[in-house]
Design brief:
Layout: H1 2-18, E1 24-25, E2 28-32, H2 39-45, E3 53-54, H3 56-68, E4 72-80, E5 83-90, E6 93-100, H4 107-116, H5 127-142, E7 150-158, E8 162-170, E9 176-183, H6 190-194, H7 206-209, H8 216-231, E10 239-247, E11 253-261, E12 267-275, H9 281-285, H10 298-314, E13 321-329, E14 334-342, E15 348-355, H11 362-366, H12 379-391, E16 395-401, E17 411-420, E18 424-433, E19 437-446, E20 455-462, E21 466-475, E22 484-495, E23 505-519, E24 524-539, H13 545-554, E25 557-560, E26 562-570, E27 581-591, E28 599-611, E29 617-629, E30 651-652, E31 671-680, E32 692-704, E33 717-728, E34 731-740, E35 749-750, E36 752-759
Parallel strand pairs: 2-5, 6-8, 9-11, 12-14, 15-17
Antiparallel strand pairs: 1-3, 4-5, 7-8, 10-11, 13-14, 16-17, 18-19, 18-36, 19-20, 20-21, 21-22, 22-23, 23-24, 24-25, 24-26, 26-27, 27-28, 28-29, 29-31, 30-35, 31-32, 32-33, 33-34, 34-36
Helix pairs in contact: 1-3
Family: Belongs to the BamA family.
Subcellular location: Cell outer membrane; Membrane
Function: Part of the outer membrane protein assembly complex, which is involved in assembly and insertion of beta-barrel proteins into the outer membrane.
Length: 760
């Protein structure tokens, strides 16, 4: 740019000298030398009009103005009998840009980057812009660890004053981190310190994660992690002396050396509170996680400051300021802290603003808010509101900000921003086994119909085993107090003849029911339902004697009055990406007197999430079930519990575990126990992507009950494997690969299972 300006100024200066002639009145203006540029464009930039008197000053201004357009590389002014001749030489235009040899990046993305650098087709060609674009292209490759990249640029003249630009890229090999050295560590081995780093030397998965490629930003983050490692262990005077990054002459290997000074370990000598105590000091001291005699930890200090700030925020002090001032005693290697508290002004919420909800109505979100307009600000109510909106499961992301109201010192706004996700789904599940081949099922549902928050589920399953036609409707706010109401209509046909693992029988069930739910508190709710159903039983030729005896006793057709009662507690931190908390569910189904069958089924389900680190989450899941009959009757065989499949013990075929008949077909049972241990973590290389979450799992479970002829088949079965849950643009996809650990002869295995849904 500086070169262009200098050339223009020199040209203007020379033109001024060459124009040293008498001023004259411009009778006409002619443009010569233009090929692509319209004459009208030149006239629009030319500061001289017909009838003007042209002198040296105006001539210089005209030349400067035309140069400033960037369209021309030479401009001359001539005169002939009162006619002003503007003679120009256009800069060439870029006709095409081609990139050869680029594999690391998509060519379209590289061209977009060149466009942002000022180089694009149809634009005026400028050598300085080309050089900048070439450097930007190199920087892109260097950011991917390709330090040896070579870029050769050629420009080819074309007809009509145009040029073609070609970038030939020799990417070279990606430089790898061969060694990371930490010098100065005495208390901790280098291997333990390097475990806090993201950057590492080449390993089994680094080809995918790219963690063996140097990045200045990643190194800065790793050094901060190293600092936190020491500060959380009492080394208050820890310091990074220097960091050296070197690369071999062939641009292939990178070596990183970090020099540190650990310093002494400090313990806490005293903890004091000072400032304006609007909350009893005793209450605030309970929030401080540092005690006298403890080894200093910056993490616990930061947590203490946050807890005190949040506690003041619950009383409306949204802008409370808490500073922990240290007092070091280097001789005794002790540190004391004084927490200075400035609560600031108490504020209230002026307005709650909701954005991002393109389908969901405002009222659906507002009724989940526990922070109200006009009320005092409360940190816990803000957090609780976010959790409740999150648990609606209508959104991919929920964020809340609390900016101050301009011009007011005691008001804030609450800005709730959501990112909608598909809430309607056409689902189908699939699994594959050697005996049964492909197994399919499906349903159609809308969890947020017309953005009202109401649920509608229409299931149409035409599989060979299960044929289901059902309609369910739920209004989660049947009353303003949050009482839920809904109904179910269903017709189900179960035919186990095609299931190798299950004994042969067929049931046709037609029924209807009403449901009501009552919220007990923020986390607990109770759901009660009452229905009526007709069950028609058809037995196969090889049905077990237990089923035959049941039909002889109760008949092929029964009328039942099932009552259901459920209690659920949801204490998860997030329904989108759960890292902590629990969910519990207790369910009971009872066949009431007045119907043909009197029975009960009880079940308990617990899921517990615990964050092991910022990356890994431990999930424990346990399910228990028990059933039986009363009033002299028994649990109907078609109400039995089953286990096996991708919702219980993976690696075994669906409903294949537990008691079996003489034909090795599953009977089901009146007792069920299933559990799993699962380690959840982000997809390597996609840590910020909340749509993909893999896991490693260990499953166990089985079913017990009377009627089995092979008792050892009732024992617990174990399996282990890996699973991936992906919320894809086409719908949720869950894949698992499991290896049974103690399968017995006759067990029906299904190592690979997946479930996929199409969302709209």
């Amino acid at each position: 740019m500086k070169v262009r300006t200098l050339v223009a100024l020199v040209s203007v200066f020379c033109a001024s000298i060459s124009w040293a002639r008498e001023p004259f009145v411009v009778k006409d203006i002619r443009i010569e030398g233009i090929q692509r540029t319209e004459a009208g464009t030149v006239f629009s930039y030319l500061p001289v009009k017909v009838g003007d008197t042209l002198d040296d000053e105006k001539a210089a201004a005209a030349i400067k103005a035309l140069y400033a357009t960037g369209f021309f590389k030479d401009v001359r002014l001539e005169s002939e009998n009162g006619v002003l001749l503007v003679v120009v030489e256009e800069r060439p235009a870029i006709a095409q840009i081609s990139i050869v040899g680029a594999k690391e990046f998509e060519k379209d993305k590289l061209k977009e980057g060149l466009k942002q650098a000022g180089l694009a087709e149809s634009r005026i060609f400028d050598r300085a812009t080309l050089e900048r674009a070439e450097q930007e292209l190199k920087h892109q490759y260097i950011s991917r660890g390709k330090y040896g990249v070579k870029i050769t640029t050629t420009t080819t003249p074309l007809e009509r004053n145009r040029v073609a630009i070609n970038f030939h890229v020799d990417e070279g090999k990606t430089a790898k981190i061969r060694k990371i050295n930490i010098i100065g560590n005495k208390e901790f081995p280098e291997k333990e310190l390097l475990s806090a780093f993201v950057l590492r030397t080449p390993g089994l998965l680094t080809w995918f994660t790219k963690e063996d490629q140097y990045s200045k930003q990643k190194l800065s983050a790793d050094l901060e992690s190293l600092r936190s490692f020491y500060l959380n262990r009492g080394y208050l005077e820890f310091s990074l002396e220097s960091t050296q990054v070197s690369i071999t002459p062939d641009m292939q290997d990178i070596y990183i050396t970090v020099n540190i000074v650990e310093g002494p370990k400090y313990t806490v000598s005293e903890v004091k509170l000072a400032g304006e105590m609007l909350v009893p000091e005793a209450d605030l001291r309970k929030l401080i996680k540092l005690a006298v005699g403890d080894v200093f930890s910056r993490e616990r200090l930061t947590e203490s400051v946050k807890l005190i700030t949040d506690r003041l925020g619950d009383d409306g002090y949204a802008f409370a300021n808490v500073n922990a001032s240290p007092q070091l005693d280097k001789e005794k290697q002790q540190v004391g802290f004084t927490f200075f508290i400035d609560p600031g002004r108490r504020v209230y919420v002026r307005r709650i603003n909701i954005t991002g909800n393109t389908r969901t109505r405002d009222e659906v979100i507002r009724r989940e808010m526990r922070q109200f307009e006009g009320g005092w600000y409360s940190t816990s109510k803000i957090n609780r509101s976010k959790q409740r909106v999150d648990r609606l499961n209508y959104f991919n992301a929920v964020s809340i900000e609390t900016p101050a109201v301009p011009g007011a010192t005691d008001q804030i706004d609450v800005n709730v921003d959501v990112k909608e996700k598909p809430t309607g789904a056409v689902m189908f599940g699939a699994g594959y086994s050697n005996m049964e081949g492909l197994i399919l099922s499906g349903s159609i549902a809308q969890d947020n119909i017309f953005g009202t928050g109401k649920f509608v589920n229409l299931m149409v399953n035409t599989g060979s085993v299960n044929k289901t036609y059902s309609l369910s409707y739920t209004d989660p706010y049947f009353t303003r107090d949050g009482i839920t109401a809904g109904f179910d209509l269903y017709k189900r046909t179960l035919n186990t003849a095609t299931l190798v693992a299950v004994n042969s029988f067929n049931t046709d069930t037609t029924g209807a029911g009403l449901r009501f739910g009552i919220p007990i508190n923020e986390n607990d709710s109770i759901m009660a339902g009452l229905g009526a159903e007709n069950v028609i039983i058809h037995l196969g030729d090889n049905s077990p004697q237990r089923n035959v005896d049941f039909v002889q006793k109760f008949g092929k057709s029964t009328i039942n009055i099932p009552m259901t009662l459920n209690w659920r507690r949801d204490g998860r931190d997030s329904a989108i990406w759960t890292t902590s908390g629990t969910t519990q569910r207790v369910a009971a189904e009872v066949g009431l007197p007045g119907g043909d069958l009197t029975y009960y089924k009880l079940s308990y389900d617990l899921r517990w999430y615990y964050p092991l680190t910022d990356t890994f989450t431990l999930m424990l899941n346990g399910e228990l079930g028990y059933g039986g009959g009363y009033n002299g009757k028994e649990l109907p065989f078609f109400k039995n519990f089953f286990a096996g499949g991708n919702t219980s013990v993976r690696g075994y075929n669906i409903s294949s575990l537990g008691p079996r008949d003489s034909n090795n077909r599953t009977l089901g049972g009146n007792k069920r126990a299933v559990g799993s241990i699962e380690l959840l973590f982000p997809m390597p290389g996609l840590k910020n992507d909340r749509s993909v979450r893999p896991s490693i799992f260990l499953d166990a479970g089985s079913v017990w009950g009377p009627g089995g002829v092979i008792p050892e088949q009732e024992g617990l079965r174990y399996s282990a494997g890996i699973a991936v849950m992906w919320i894809s643009p086409m719908g949720p996809l869950k894949v698992s690969v499991a290896q049974p650990l103690n399968n017995h002869p006759g067990d029906n295995l299904q190592r690979f299972q997946f479930q996929f849904g199409q969302q709209f």
